[in-house]
Amino acid sequence: MIPRIALTPGEPGGIGPELAVKLASLGHERGNNNHAAGNGLAHGPAQVVAIADPELLRTTAAQLGLPLRLIPFDPAQPPGETPPASLHVHPISLAQPAVAGRLNPANAGYVLETLRFAAQGCLNRTFDALVTGPVHKGIINDAGFPFSGHTELFAEIAGIERVVMMLAAGELRVALATTHLPLKEVSDAITAELLEQVITILHRSLRDQFRIPNPRIGVCGLNPHAGEGGHLGREEIEVIEPALDKLRALGLRLLGPLPADTLFTPPQLARCDAVLAMYHDQGLPVLKFKGFGHAVNITLGLPFIRTSVDHGTALNIAGHNEADCGSLRAALAQAVQMAKLRNL
Ligand SMILES: NC(=O)c1ccc[n+]([C@@H]2O[C@H](COP(=O)([O-])OP(=O)(O)OC[C@H]3O[C@@H](n4cnc5c(N)ncnc54)[C@H](O)[C@@H]3O)[C@@H](O)[C@H]2O)c1
Ligand SMILES: N[C@H](C(=O)O)[C@H](O)COP(=O)(O)O
């Protein structure tokens, strides 16, 4: 079976369209004598369906001087491999032509439409997985659409109360208890119920999607030195430890809560299959320091497979032909691998 993967390039003024074209062109450079790498994949062939404005992709390819053939996507046909230097495409029109490096609130509705179409297509099994390029959260909000991230939007579309954001760079996997939340709201958000839900989703995903039979999860404290016995904060004693004890009683292998600056050291990481950070900037700087450019963002707990890049819209280099598609390539490879495992 050839997995059919939806690809949303994201913010049209950012590097997303360039990355999509570059991803297709990896197949052009490698594909002719290496069929398995036909569309730049490390894990074999796939049908890659860009959900985007075709004119934006054509213009971007022309500006980059890269070949690109756009093949109309027909969901009624069985998925055939996307050939090198090509993308299948489901067209959605921009409201206004995009300018590289410039945000335009008029196109925020377009971005959301591509995401909604792709997510619905995953829910109704038109697609086997979804790979997302970077969006600009600010401009979508400026345009009047409350939006804190793909993760939260897809949970809402799927009607799921709790999902988990995890980024992976090789063997380092970092999941987050809270995602796109102002720092001053984090402490109140960390409840025993939240931790139990998040850790359960993380445990199940590591076991079922990453085939780690009895995963060990390292859990960070919230406060410096995990609260120093209550002298530097009491969330560890009052919320985190009781939640971990409850889950341990169910057989989960949990380490912590440990001070984050201890847990993120090589000897402790070697004991863990994943680390749970309490908030975005406790975990992601470590992950991105190690893996920026080839790490993958994976949403756990959705009823469909969703992976994404480890970076943002990079407006400062959009249109300069400097964007590296390593993370998009890794996200696609991860999605293909997960889709194949699910379909075994
Ligand atoms: N997956 C996503 O949708 C996603 C992820 C992270 C950030 N964002 C959003 O992106 C916007 C900009 O965020 P930011 O400026 O903090 O981070 P950013 O990742 O866009 O840029 C940080 C730095 O990394 C560089 N960079 C990023 N990706 C690159 C690539 N593929 N190749 C070469 N250089 C690259 C940029 O040029 C910049 O110097 C924000 O709105 C943020 O919310 C979206
Ligand atoms: N938190 C992510 C990061 O820093 O890479 C990023 O903002 C993307 O999140 P979503 O996949 O939820 O949009």
UniProtKB/TrEMBL annotation:
GO-annotated cellular components: cytoplasm
Keywords: Cobalt, Cytoplasm, Magnesium, Metal-binding, NAD, NADP, Oxidoreductase, Pyridoxine biosynthesis, Zinc
Positions annotated to bind substrate: 150-151, 288, 297, 306
Alphabetized Gene3D superfamilies for the sequence: Isopropylmalate Dehydrogenase (3.40.718.10)
The record's free-text note on cofactor binding: Binds 1 divalent metal cation per subunit. Can use ions such as Zn(2+), Mg(2+) or Co(2+).
Keyword Lyase: no
Lineage: Bacteria, Pseudomonadati, Pseudomonadota, Gammaproteobacteria, Cellvibrionales
Positions with a binding annotation for a divalent metal cation: 180, 225, 280
Entry protein name: 4-hydroxythreonine-4-phosphate dehydrogenase
Source organism of this protein record: Microbulbifer yueqingensis
